[in-house]
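pinned: reference chain
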Amino acid sequence: MAENYNDQSIKEAAALLGIPEEKMTAEIQGRIGELYRRIREASVPRSVFAVFDIEAHDAEVLFEDSFSIRGRDLANICRDCKKAALLATTLGSGTDMLLRRSQTEDMSDAVILDACASAEIERVTDLAESDIIRSLSPEEHLTMRFSPGYGDVPLEDSKKIISALSADRRIGLKLTGADMLVPMKSVTAVIGISDRITGRNKDCTLCFMRESCTYKKRGGSCGIQNK
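pinned: its structure tokens
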């Protein structure tokens, strides 16, 4: 059976697999829990973040007059922010190797392992975001987390985040010629820092996964809670 600290992540993995709560038997939970344990054993989670002064323009956010990340949606989120955090997280190459190996051994396990890895990188990224929150003053609040590929922010702008954080050297994160993150189970993100509490729930209308999202099909969302 699943260990307590994994229960929420197992629910997330089940949601990604399209398993409704009423169909979540002890046997299914135990199977997901066992494969989740394998993901945890293969993973070496790492994260890095930094805070930058920003200016939000019509369709881009300028970071310390040095580089910009494009996107009207992101600019709107950061409209009232003078600072933003850049964040990068990864589960490491061991997770990639496990996922590739499982695809040659058992496709059923491979599908579940992939969902567990996706839930795990979200958990790791949430923990990294908590580190950012602890670094803020009581008057500062985070906006929603916004990643390249979400809304109108191009995937290729992950390269700017990786470069600004030296994430290639510090946590081994790279971007392929096809703009895919390596290791695969990794996240890059921008998070605005505001002097007021803002809505942090993800806007489904902006998401590139909106047509295939399992949360939406079940009438829910993957929203992040307010600080």
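why pinned: Helices lie at 7-16, 26-42, 72-77, 93-105, 107-135, 158-165, 167-171, 214-217. The CA atoms of residues 13 and 195 lie 34 Å apart.
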